[in-house]
Amino acid sequence: MADARTSSLPDILRDAGLYALVAFGLCIPIVAYRTNAGPTGLELTPRWPLVAAFCAAIFVLRVVQRLILARRDARRALTPSPAQATEAVQGEPDAGQRVSTFGLYAFLGIALTLPVIASLASGGLGPARYWIDLGILILTYVMLGWGLNIVVGLAGLLDLGYVAFYAVGAYCYALLSTTFGLSFWVCLPLAGLFAAAWGMVLGFPVLRLRGDYLAIVTLAFGEIIRLVLINWTDLTGGAAGISSIPRASFFGIPFSADEDGFAARFGLEFDSMHRVVFLYYLILGLALLTNFATLRLRRMPIGRAWEALREDEIACRSLGIDTTTTKLTAFALGAAFAGFAGSFFSVRQGFISPESFTFLESAIILAIVVLGGMGSQVGVAIAAVAMVGGPELLRNLGFLSAVFGEGFDPNEYRLLLFGLAMVAMMVWRPRGLISVRVPSVSLGERRAISGAHVSEGHG
Amino acid sequence: MDVFLQQLINGLTLGSIYGLIAIGYTMVFGIIGMVNFAHGDVFMVSSFIALIAFLILTAWLGISSVALALLIVLVLAMALTALWGWAIERVAYRPLRGSFRLAPLISAIGVSIFLSNFVQVTQGARNKSTPPMLEGGIALMQSEGYTVFLSYKQVLIMTVTAVLLTGFWYLVQRTPFGRAQRACEQDRKMAALLGIDVDRTISLTFVLGAALAAVAGVLYLLYYGVVSFSDGFVPGVKAFTAAVLGGIGSLPGAVLGGLIIGLIEVFWSAYFSIEYKDVAAFSILAIVLIFMPSGILGRAEVEKV
Amino acid sequence: MTVLTPANPKTAERIAVGRDAVLSVVHLTMRFGGLTAVNDLSFEARAGDITALIGPNGAGKTTVFNCITGFYKPTEGMLRLAHADGTVHLLERLPNFAVNRTARVARTFQNIRLFPGMTVLENLLVAQHKPLMRASGFTVLGLLGLAGYRSAETAAIDTAKGWLDRIGLMDRADDPAGALPYGAQRRLEIARAMCTDPVLLCLDEPAAGLNPRESAELNALLRYIRDAHHTSVLLIEHDMSVVMQISDHVVVLDYGCKIADGTPDQVRADPKVVAAYLGVEDEEVERVEAEVGISHGEAGA
């Protein structure tokens, strides 16, 4: 491709033309023809206008990009450079820190009052159900993101099989409650312990591997667990999963309409939304517990050892830190939080199947951590809201259907955007949205460290 | 014995396909030290390209000669998939040189998610099956009601693989590109100082890897006659397993690993349990990475302090 | 062993205190495939001494270090480390991290290995992992916020402050280590190693890349470590001014074998060392001789 420095108009047009040509090549035949099942086998539907629109879009985008890049300062700010890993990503670290603290309180405030706001805005608990359900979904991912953040963000270990521990937690509650009738509150810690134990068992042999091999092995373990869940029909119900899992109770009091129910005991009128609101606060509590534990651990020797491990494993060993044990604790703790989240998932859904625990789910959680800024709690929360809540919100915007035609569902494009966002993040902001690190201890005023100095894992 | 022979044939066929994909992994790993996670999805894209090209040729242009159609499909798929390989490297990996070590892997996962969902959005989520392309075969042995059958498809797959691998071997061992490629593998900085265009060599490596994956994609479609947007992941992981088993970075290792993985998968399905065949493949991956990360033909790595 | 003429008066006092070996390297051999990097090497580093390991490039010095500090498992040989209380550790049998944790051998690296994204203070606290972990009840008690951990952390911070004061980085305590100038990073790495409370401190080219003033500061720091902390020091160094001024004992390696062993004065007069070190080029000979402070006439003495 032509160099970005020469920027006469014909040059730019030629370069953009080249981009469009490549886009054209990539579009045939996958975009140009759609295969549909017809009466006599597959039939092809040509879609050349779409290809043309696509290439035109690429052409225009490239011209715009080149015109912006023609300005020297813009070029310096936007051009991804190989040296970027050692360059300051965020000019003013203190500003970043302010966003971090402010962001966490803002998130906490909104999260705590969401059911109230939603019911006031939509006129009653019932109509607010959509918002509260969405809140539960987002918070589940926030919790998973925070859990994985311990492993990836703090300890610098790329775990591609995180969802396996989520599955262990979910099946743990589902099996214990359906076969032994144990209550959710007994199962919740058990699920966490069980997932942590699995984390140790799987982690122990693999944690001495180099970063990318570790990632692939964790992926393999994740898939093995899922395949076993599918095929061990006697225990897990196979692909059909486990249904009619007991619902959550209010610390032993069921959410039912009868006399012993939650509403009657507390003198309220029965409303099926009580359970949903309770679930909402339950996952909020679990997520905050994850966050609290992480923030606390960061200031303890073990947390510092995790971060040191991310920075330089060899130096850690020279300082007498048992890197295997240290990695294992990070791995097991991350797994335990996934186990908690898993048992919440199964008590909320009342039904689980291996379908919910695919590699893609691991990748989504990882994407949230990566986009948010590895190691940053606020960043992860923002990323979870944006990536999980964003497409949901887009779906309700009427004008999108008007532009893209009836039946347009942004959710279909969600994963497409996830993938693109992951690449874009790695290219332009490898440290994520919030890239500053707050020191765990300081003599003077606590100042944030620009992401430029922080490592992302020894690899 | 007959069952064994039949499974041997099936295993070698499957192994050829894995071997072709594994070369892409092993070359990219050799030259820039990254696990190109998206390679399996590039393979899947090539299958779709082949599928559509085949439909156009037979249904619309009315080409009745299967051999001619297959040849055109093969060339088309290789060219277009190579373009994908080139574009992916240019957009998603090249800007990351010099970034932290896990960045290319995360980016590759992003590309993988993008590719499979791109195909899902543009082609729909259903399985796509082709009309039968190449039927018939040779009965090798017949005894006690069991026929050992070598289908023409299998002959074609093994022949194409063998021919291409020979050509490829020549390319890497005997041409200036091959020399540049091996030089970059040894020491990229030094190669650049000696006047080798490193970026171009890496691009070409991706292009070649993608073209071989395209061959695998065409053969896969021919063999199974069905493809879906999610078909890149599992064959991709198996081919990566093959590359690791053979010794990542080693080309003969990749082919050897592919054949071994193909054979293990087929025999496992035949003699143990077909449900757990993927478990077997993933377990091999984990075991090899944990206990013999340098594989059969690879070199051991010494930790630099 | 021949009777030593001490390089400075202080050494004479300490010789009277104790002559025990803190580290004995016995028949150490390290092979990588067909390459023998270290061949049947034996030497001793005595308690309270600064022992220098010198030799031309590729002599195997860093390999010896990596064996001592547990990064490589020696092919053959024994590495015996004795504490003042008489306990003995065989370093070649310990896992990597235990060389520091139980045998109390600390090291620095040729290419500095700080935790660049963590602050200077955090770097020094990570080094005090063992006592802090114990005080935090292996995290469990610390999570509950018990006072025992808090006072242990205060003590750790005080230790760190002491070292920061010593290396002149007090005002940079809250800056990321990666932002420090090169010389300061070197000093910080030494302070970090000292925070693990070692009996033997191994320094891999501590003076590399330092200017003369920084070099002099380093000498003072190493003397302070030896005299005030009673920590023995083993160092690899190319800078002859450092080696000759501060070391009590010099071991010379060439091609993985020991070719000389003695006081700085003995070693620099050894014709084998001159030959190995200076090779045949006259210019080089003169330059290094000037560096070690001998005029041409005395070279053979």
UniProtKB/TrEMBL annotation, chain A:
InterPro entries linked to this entry: ABC_transp_permease, LivHM_N, LivM-like
CDD domains, alphabetized: TM_PBP1_LivM_like
One cellular component term from this protein's GO annotations in UniProt: plasma membrane
GO-annotated molecular function: branched-chain amino acid transmembrane transporter activity
Signal peptide bounds: none
High-affinity branched-chain amino acid transport system permease LivHM N-terminal domain ranges (all copies): 12-96
PANTHER family per record: HIGH-AFFINITY BRANCHED-CHAIN AMINO ACID TRANSPORT SYSTEM PERMEASE, HIGH-AFFINITY BRANCHED-CHAIN AMINO ACID TRANSPORT SYSTEM PERMEASE PROTEIN LIVM
Protein name: High-affinity branched-chain amino acid transport system permease LivHM N-terminal domain-containing protein
TrEMBL record, chain B:
Protein's GO biological process: D-alanine transmembrane transport; L-alanine transport; L-isoleucine import across plasma membrane
Entry keywords, A to Z: Amino-acid transport, Cell inner membrane, Cell membrane, Membrane, Transmembrane, Transmembrane helix, Transport
GO CC, alphabetical: plasma membrane
InterPro entries per the UniProt record, alphabetical: ABC_transp_permease (IPR001851), BCAA_transport_permease (IPR052157)
Compartment annotation: Cell membrane
Record bears the keyword Transmembrane: yes
Tree of life domain: Bacteria
Membrane topology: Multi-pass membrane protein
GO MF, any single term: L-leucine transmembrane transporter activity
Name of a matching Pfam family: BPD_transp_2
Annotated TM spans: 12-35, 42-61, 67-88, 100-119, 155-172, 202-223, 243-267, 279-298
Coiled coil: none
UniProt record similarity statement: Belongs to the binding-protein-dependent transport system permease family. LivHM subfamily.
UniProt-recorded name of the protein: High-affinity branched-chain amino acid transport system permease protein LivH
UniProt source species: Methylobacterium symbioticum
Gene that encodes the chain: livH_4
Automatic annotation (TrEMBL), chain C:
Record has Lipid biosynthesis as a keyword: no
Gene3D superfamilies: P-loop containing nucleotide triphosphate hydrolases
Gene Ontology terms: biological process: D-alanine transmembrane transport; L-alanine transport; L-isoleucine import across plasma membrane; L-valine import across plasma membrane
GO molecular function, one term: ATP hydrolysis activity
Domain of life according to the entry: Bacteria
Ranges of residues in domain ABC transporter: 23-280
Keywords of the record: Amino-acid transport, ATP-binding, Hydrolase, Nucleotide-binding, Transport
Top class in the EC scheme: hydrolase
Pfam families documented for this protein: ABC_tran, BCA_ABC_TP_C
Classification via InterPro entries: AAA+_ATPase, ABC_AA/LPS_Transport, ABC_transporter-like_ATP-bd, BCA_ABC_TP_C, P-loop_NTPase
GO cellular component: plasma membrane
Family statement: Belongs to the ABC transporter superfamily.
Name by which UniProt lists this protein: Putative amino-acid import ATP-binding protein YxeO
Native species: Methylobacterium symbioticum
